[in-house]
Amino acid sequence: MTITTALDALEQVLGDRLSRSKPDLTAHGQSESHFPVTPPDAVAYPRTTKEVSQILSVCAQHSCPVIGYGAGTSLEGHTAAISGGVSVDFRDMAAVIEVRAEDMTVRVQPGITREALNEELRATGLFFPVDPGANATIGGMAATRASGTTAVRYGTMRDNVMALEVVMADGRIIRTGSAARKTSAGYDLTALMVGSEGTLGLITELTLKLQGQPEAIGAATCAFGDIEAAIAAVTATIAMGIPMARIEFLDAASVAAVNAHSKASFPEMPHLMVEFHGSDSAVAEQAERFGEIVADFGGSDFDWATRAEDRSRLWQMRHTAYWAILGWKQGAKAIVTDVCVPISTLAQAVSETQADIAASPIPAPILGHVGDGNFHAILLIDPDSATERAAAKDLAARMAERALALGGTVTGEHGVGMGKLDYMTAEHGAGWDVMAGIKRALDPQNIMNPGKVVRTNG
Amino acid sequence: MTITTALDALEQVLGDRLSRSKPDLTAHGQSESHFPVTPPDAVAYPRTTKEVSQILSVCAQHSCPVIGYGAGTSLEGHTAAISGGVSVDFRDMAAVIEVRAEDMTVRVQPGITREALNEELRATGLFFPVDPGANATIGGMAATRASGTTAVRYGTMRDNVMALEVVMADGRIIRTGSAARKTSAGYDLTALMVGSEGTLGLITELTLKLQGQPEAIGAATCAFGDIEAAIAAVTATIAMGIPMARIEFLDAASVAAVNAHSKASFPEMPHLMVEFHGSDSAVAEQAERFGEIVADFGGSDFDWATRAEDRSRLWQMRHTAYWAILGWKQGAKAIVTDVCVPISTLAQAVSETQADIAASPIPAPILGHVGDGNFHAILLIDPDSATERAAAKDLAARMAERALALGGTVTGEHGVGMGKLDYMTAEHGAGWDVMAGIKRALDPQNIMNPGKVVRTNG
């Protein structure tokens, strides 16, 4: 067995930091969404880039699959060890290496979580803005090109990763990008690695752009009579160029789930949850302009979360909405859709989706980062019901087709993993073959997270 | 001859839009900097993506080199036909395909220039912000990952290209990205193509992000006693987070050249040229905050360019500074350096460079987009003097080494072409081999702009 011989060789490198304990394997084979538990054969806990390089060299020699592992919060089965092999857990590579306040950058190891990073940055007056909700690791966020609630203002991981250290499939260590704010020095390997989901290499260090902590922050919620009015308010807000820091949509079902889970008492109507960043006067001006738009579309007065702890609670509720929704139906698993469409088509995409859900047997609350045109329907299914699974699959397929027909994408931020593979031909056509060509060139043995993002045996 | 048979086959496709006229060949073999004239064997003028695909299919069949051609304003020998072949000139593919005002995006063909695009957008209230100075084509700007004076506020081509249509080396037509504001659907082929300098494919369509025309614009110049003070004012301005739309540095020699060329009368001292965008109140506030910093560093009062025509004249002077400097020394050719460093190291990089220039026999005015840490020394040489060429090469090499030692890049915005090839190993190490691996995978015959960006026969 090639994997067995690889594991023996890896044990020489890592000693007891190569784990084969059953609970460890199961934990690394689990998923937060609907994918079955698919454990690896071992879990490696490297401490240095050199060790990661040794792991890759050994695995290349023995054709052993390698799966990068952060916090395990991905939603498309990214970390499932579907061909067995070694899960490389970056738990022990979680340091802040260097803060450069004057350059507004930070170098970190991949295993640090976004909350831990921002905790470490607190005293500097700077923060890392990308916030996918889950307390994911920075390495995992880069690998999946994560974004979330603040992307409307600060961009996604694509926009906030400046440079990387990556260990390639053959164990070579490369550095991509630079510490300068821009470069034209050849192919953008940083951008190629961000979003490659561990299929081209393992990220062992990241240089990130930071933002100044805003002088003032305002957060508020407002309710609307129907989905259309809420979405129309969003598109008007974006068209006006109001620099929203967050503008989140929750439909009535999502609000009901949040109320139940977080003991809140929002009116069970479609809501926007928003945040403004800037100087005191800028926040006041943004809030006033946004308030006028909300009023135009019949929205309620703002319910302000003025104190920092109220804001934290508000975003905590938003961030746990997925769990709230999941808890809404006993024993349910979730199929999470993640379409993103041009903002001009958002109202159509959301209302057609809502009608489609209403006509299906599946409960599916809708919520999302609508300032980017990105929204999710959380399709709740009994995992043992073939009927429900089939109905959910159909709903998800129609959402994906609708997004593509409108010029959008089937995944705005969750990535491809296994869950979106079947849509890649429809989304990319021959471009997907080009991706496979790159994969074959950089990972000829297909040991890097095989079975994700691309198909190479076609 | 494979090229000859290719040209015959191309004539079948293009008729008299395949030119072999001597003046045409010479024009397409010229460079705006120091590279010798290197004409192609023919110039193709396709009108459609399909024709571009046919050109590539024919050239792949006959192993004939293909060089994309826009406005010919690149500075690193990008369009030189060093292995002969066909220059594909996008002159006849220069249309605006679709403006989507609500999405703030536009789809264009690659041959449109940035000035023509902004002319067409004028009535929409939107504009395309990337401004490299030269009236380059949008396709060429994407291919070289151009940026320029406004990148400090609006980013580079990396940040402003959302989607592409690309014809690959075998004639396949692919679409990358989507019209949505973000996507996680696999490898970022858009970012891979932007900055690939025609070595991986030819761009035949681009979807660009647009910006709202600012309500108010303010532009001003101010003079400083020495370079150090001017640069210190820049780093302080960036650290304060003042959202400068432009912040350009010119040393005294650059100012003298501009004065002579544009019949201006700036004091011959180091200058900053700046621009503010925003609401009336925001521009006033930015100008006030910046003014305080300038005063702190002993800069002069602002000389405001208040009327639109004065602003145009100011930026026209900045944009023609390269020509002004070139005209400063009779018969000179320029070797243009393009380093970009972390902003915290900018003062050191500029002052060490200045001292190095002062100790050399080469006149070399310094200017640049210092808000990004990017600056150029224009090394003026007598092209027939081996001594001057050697001295300039040494100066350029030391600037490059200095930039790399400070964590920066040897090219912030001009690209690699032929001129920066020799620095790629120092900048990227094994990463450059990874780039070559991608090149070999996507262009196995090495027909796409051979000899640029990567070396594949190593």
Q: What is the secondary structure topology, with strand pairs?
A:
Two copies of one chain form a homodimer.
Chain A: H1 2-14, E1 18-19, H2 22-29, E2 42-44, H3 49-62, E3 66-69, E4 86-89, E5 96-100, E6 105-108, H4 114-121, E7 126-127, H5 138-143, H6 151-154, H7 157-160, E8 161-168, E9 173-177, H8 189-193, E10 201-209, E11 211-212, E12 216-223, H9 227-239, E13 246-250, H10 252-262, E14 271-278, H11 280-296, E15 303-305, H12 308-319, H13 321-326, E16 333-336, E17 339-340, H14 346-358, E18 366-369, E19 374-381, H15 386-405, H16 424-428, H17 430-442
Parallel strand pairs in A: 2-4, 3-4
Antiparallel strand pairs in A: 1-2, 5-6, 6-10, 7-11, 8-9, 8-10, 12-14, 12-15, 13-14, 13-18, 16-19, 17-19, 18-19
How does this model look, in words?
The structure is a homodimer of 458-residue chains. By secondary structure, chain A is of the alpha+beta class. Chain A has four domains: 2-91, 2-Layer Sandwich (Uridine Diphospho-n-acetylenolpyruvylglucosamine Reductase, domain 2), CATH 3.30.43.10; 96-212, Uridine Diphospho-n-acetylenolpyruvylglucosamine Reductase, domain 3 (2-Layer Sandwich), CATH 3.30.465.10; 216-323, Alpha-Beta Plaits (2-Layer Sandwich); 329-422, Alpha-Beta Plaits (2-Layer Sandwich). Helices cover 38% and strands 20% of the residues of chain A. Chain A has helices at residues 2-14, 22-29, 49-62, 114-121, 138-143, 151-154, 157-160, 189-193, 227-239, 252-262, 280-296, 308-319, 321-326, 346-358, 386-405, 424-428, 430-442; strands spanning 18-19, 42-44, 66-69, 86-89, 96-100, 105-108, 126-127, 161-168, 173-177, 201-209, 211-212, 216-223, 246-250, 271-278, 303-305, 333-336, 339-340, 366-369, 374-381. In chain A, strands 12, 13, 14, 15, 16, 17, 18 and 19 form an eight-stranded antiparallel beta sheet that branches. A five-stranded antiparallel beta sheet of chain A has the order 5-6-10-8-9. In chain A, a hairpin with a 4-residue loop joins strand 18 (366-369) and strand 19. The relative contact order of chain A is 0.12. The model of chain A has no long low-confidence stretch (mean pLDDT 95).
